[in-house]
Write a structure and sequence with these properties.
Layout (H helix, E strand, L loop, with lengths): L1 H67 L2 H23 L1
Length: about 90
């Protein structure tokens, strides 16, 4: 009978340790999930910043090319850009 009581005590002790390890693993998972979410937010922010910078680069290139071209060429480029913007708006509205 003593052996049975000792065996039950060992099982109880091991189950408590397993439960503690499970809780610790859950906490670690929650920490990692929050780190992943923070990393995703930072990635989205960096992507937005990259898009803004690419837009600025495009504007700079256009402004440099405008300074070197005649007004007729500039009007043609502006019309082309307006058509491209209209296409983008149409795609967004779909």
């Amino acid at each position: 009978m003593k052996d049975l009581i000792d065996l039950i005590a060992v099982i109880k002790h091991k189950s408590e340790r397993l439960s503690e390890k499970y809780k610790a693993a859950e906490e670690q998972i929650n920490i990692l999930k929050s780190q992943i979410e923070e990393s995703r937010k930072q990635l989205n922010l960096k992507s937005q910043q990259l898009e803004e910078l690419e837009g600025k680069i495009k504007i700079l290139k256009i402004s440099k090319s405008v300074g070197e071209e005649s007004t007729k060429d500039v009007k043609l480029k502006i019309n082309e850009m307006v058509r491209e913007i209209d296409k983008c708006i149409a795609l967004i509205n779909k």
